[in-house]
Structures are given as structure tokens and as C-alpha cells.
Amino acid sequence: MQFSGFRSVIGSMWSVDDEVAQEVVSAFYGNLVDGSGRLDCTRAAMALHKAVKKLRRNNVPLEQQIVFVHIGV
């Protein structure tokens, strides 16, 4: 994806449950929005970090939390 021109890429290194992926995506995009309501790709790493922290609070098994990776800005 980065070779195609995307500045930030979020992926999974291993398989992940659909429910967990849906929870991460929802929390990720909620944290990616800046104060003006626009998506800000420079917040991608922080948004993923907060999304995974939410998984911890929801008692998702560790092996489902550690699969996500951010590469880029």
C-alpha cells in the first residue's frame, strides 16, 4: 500500500477475529478525526494506539491485541 502512495498503512500481522477488527476500526477512525472534524493521517499511530488500548479495557485476549501494525507517517 505504501508503494502505491499511501502515507500511512495499518495492517494485521496475523489473523484476527472479525468482531475485534470491527472494534479497532471503529475506535481508530474515531481517534483519527481532529478537532475540526477532518481526518488527519498524521494522527494514525496515535489513533491505533488508543484503539488497541480500548481492546485492553474490554478484556480482549492478548493474542488478538498484538496483531496490529502501523507503518508510515
TrEMBL record:
Q: Where is the CHAT domain?
A: 4-59
- Could you tell me the superkingdom of the organism this chain comes from? Eukaryota
Q: Which Pfam families match?
A: CHAT (PF12770)
Question: This chain belongs to which protein, by name?
Answer: CHAT domain-containing protein
